[in-house]
Write a structure and sequence with these properties.
The chain is built from 8 helices and no strands. It is mostly helical and 174 residues long. It folds into 2 domains: 133 residues, no CATH class; 38 residues. Helix 1 runs antiparallel to helix 2 and helix 1 packs antiparallel against helix 4. The chain starts with a helix and ends with a helix. The mean pLDDT is 87.
C-alpha cells in the first residue's frame, strides 16, 4: 500500500513540478511532511541537504532518499524515482514530437512565456519553505546573495566563478 501511495504522490509531484527540482521542493514537502507525515520537517530538511550535495538533480535525489526512508527498501527508492521522472519523460517525448509543427504558434509561445514566472514563484516558495529557526538566513547571506546577483546581472562573469567567489566570501565572513 505504501508503494502505491509513494508512486501516486511522486507522479503528482513530477507532473506539477514545473521548473526543476528546487521548484518541486515545496510540493514534495507538502506531500511528504504535511499530507502523509512520512517525515518530520527536520528529516525533510536533512534529506534536502544531502540531495543538494549529491551529484544529480535535487528532485530526483530527494525522491530516491525519501522513497528509501519511507519504505526501508531499495524498491521504495525505485518507485519514487521512476514516478517523479515518468511525467517529464512522457511530456518531453510528446513535446519533441509536436514542437517543430507548432513552434510558431502564438498560443504555444504564450504558454511557455507563462511558465517562466510560475517557475520563479515555485523556486521562491521552496526557499521560503526551507527557512525556519534552524535554517534562518542572516544579513551576511543576503549581502553575498545581493552582490552575486548584481555581478550576474551586470557583468559577464561565469556562474561557476560566482559560486566559488560566494563560497570564499562565506568562508571569510563566517
Amino acid at each position: 500500500m505504501v508503494y502505491w501511495q509513494l508512486f501516486i504522490t511522486y507522479i503528482k509531484i513530477g507532473l506539477f513540478g514545473f521548473g526543476g527540482g528546487y521548484a518541486m521542493l515545496s510540493l514534495i514537502q507538502n506531500e511528504v511532511v504535511e499530507k502523509h507525515q512520512w517525515l518530520t520537517a527536520s528529516e525533510f530538511t536533512d534529506i534536502v541537504a544531502v540531495s543538494q550535495m549529491t551529484p544529480g538533480p535535487i528532485g530526483i535525489n530527494s525522491a530516491t532518499y525519501i522513497g528509501y526512508t519511507v519504505t526501508d527498501s531499495v524498491w521504495g527508492s525505485v518507485v519514487a524515482t521512476v514516478a517523479v521522472c515518468l511525467p517529464s519523460f512522457i511530456l518531453v517525448l510528446l513535446i519533441a514530437r509536436f514542437y517543430q509543427k507548432f513552434r510558431s504558434n502564438k498560443y504555444v509561445d504564450a504558454a511557455f512565456q507563462g511558465l517562466r514566472p510560475a517557475t520563479v514563484g515555485l523556486i521562491a516558495a521552496a526557499a521560503l519553505l526551507l527557512m525556519d529557526t534552524e535554517n534562518f538566513i542572516d544579513y551576511k547571506s543576503f549581502i553575498i546573495f545581493g552582490i552575486a546577483f548584481l555581478l550576474m546581472k551586470f557583468t559577464k562573469l561565469h556562474p561557476i566563478l560566482l559560486i566559488v567567489l560566494a563560497g570564499i566570501s562565506g568562508l571569510f565572513l563566517y
